[in-house]
Request: fold
Amino acid sequence: MSSMNCSSCGAPVEIKNRFSKVFVCGYCSTHLKVSESGLDIAGKYPKLAEFPSVFQVGSRGTILGKPFAALGRMRYKYQGGHYDEWFIELDGENAWFTEDEGTFTLYTDLYEAVDIPDITSIKAGQNIMVGDKKVMVKEKGHAVVEGGEGELYFYVEPGTEVVYLDAVSEGKKVSVEYTENEVEMFAGRPLLKRDIVVEG
Ligand SMILES: [Zn+2]
Reply:
């Protein structure tokens, strides 16, 4: 896996996490699907605009005292602005980190392809079952995938609409992301900026 090249521009590609499904070329911003046979072009999209961010692709440091590396991010646009969903390695495990207008959440538990009641009927304040978990919905919103950068565990094509739920379950902060094809639930905890230490 170590010596690959971008199928579009030929730039060297180094994929660090074996679970990464898509790599966004840092040179030509082509989105490349990672498969056993190599890298397949998924599309070419504009580079993400640079907004002030707590870290960048490749950043290392500690979160709550544990070592992390930032591998990549997806950016979503919603009515209130945008948020970034980072794919990170935290102490050797996959984790996700969202940065939303200066609010940080670390998600360490992932539930993929969970069952969810009809999303259109779900309202804020409601208790629902997601998979086998009882979840209290605090907020429901719509976002559009703007793009990605680096290595991505999840991949949704830019332009796709996502319905998200911010919720709580068993004392944890929960985020549910729903597209036409997939439902994922993350559970984790809010962080303060001082919990995150970026080196260099
Ligand atoms: Zn390229």
